[in-house]
């Protein structure tokens, strides 16, 4: 038995995904959900010898497990560690252990758990009430590894390699290696794989002197994931990730253009546009999957998200510094702890506002109707603005042509 993810510790048991390598005389290589007694739990990447009972999944998690390719639950009675997995997966486990320990050195309690979730997408150890506030505020995505974090890792590795004097091609390869290691450490979840594919295609486009096409990268990521597991199409992470990215491509430019005539700095307008696009696109998915829609996701993300990328960079610096300069690493982690407290405070504040989320079908229907009306109005205004811009451009070209024409 080989564990494939960090343990999810509950009140009454511990659960984690694993791969059955050997069952008696059989070698099935079948994914399974381990359900262990409460207490100690094996870390990710360990090989176990155990005694347990196989049962089909039941309850509300049965459908979710089937979407993940898991068809059985193994209720464990006894277990012991007999080794660790090796190869590429073992490298990912080593990176995961390194980041989990050294990026939060010196931190304890809530700040450690929030920072660890931001860095690795593992929200274990966080208080249930705080997790509920993250969901209600629309900030839950910062506790998962997404495109922003993968792009931050790639950019940081590329910048560091170029600063060290490494040639651009070698620097691109170093960035790809960093993205691959980070992807393995965070786990092969749909949002992580999609972002990693996009980063790889971006580097490949540069190295082959080809134009970058974001829609092409998005579709290739979808094809890779669905070829790996077609049931991902029903997975909430897959739907949220692709809906959000597609909305960013389509909606964000319109929001930025609408704010162009107002005293709003362009970076702030971009942040508002991305938050609005993601909120609109993911609302139907969150209602369908979780029966709730956050109404404060735009302001919460505008306030809370800008520090997330900086926190990830500082966490990577902390992890790199910890083996050689522990006091400096502790100081960096302490600074990052204030960032974690700020993000948690944003979740508590916005998620605790009255009416922060809709959980009733009638409220969801009213919200959907309002959103459609606003979207139709914005689309119409955007089309009118584009037509007016084209008319002005045609008039300007006609004036220039008449001014440059030779006299009769």
Low-confidence stretches: none
Q: What structural class do helix, strand and pairing data support?
A: alpha+beta
Helix fraction by DSSP (H/I, runs of at least 4): 55-70%
Number of domains: 2
Measure the end-to-end span: 89 Å
- The proportion of strand residues reads 5-15%
Report on the biggest sheet.
6 strands, mixed
Number of distinct helices = 14
Overall number of strands = 8
Mean pLDDT: 82
Radius of gyration: 24 Å
Shape: globular
Order of helices and strands: EEEEEHEHHHHHHHHHEHHHEH
Protein described:
The protein is α+β, with helices and mostly antiparallel strands. It folds into 2 domains: 2-85, OB fold (Dihydrolipoamide Acetyltransferase, E2P); 94-367, no CATH class. The chain has helices at residues 62-67, 87-102, 109-120, 128-137, 147-163, 168-186, 190-207, 214-228, 236-258, 266-290, 297-304, 306-321, 326-351, 361-404, and strands at residues 2-3, 8-9, 13-20, 30-37, 46-55, 73-84, 293-294, 357-358. Strands 1, 2, 3, 4, 5 and 6 form a 6-stranded mixed β-sheet that branches. Helix 2 crosses helix 6 and helix 6 packs antiparallel against helix 7.
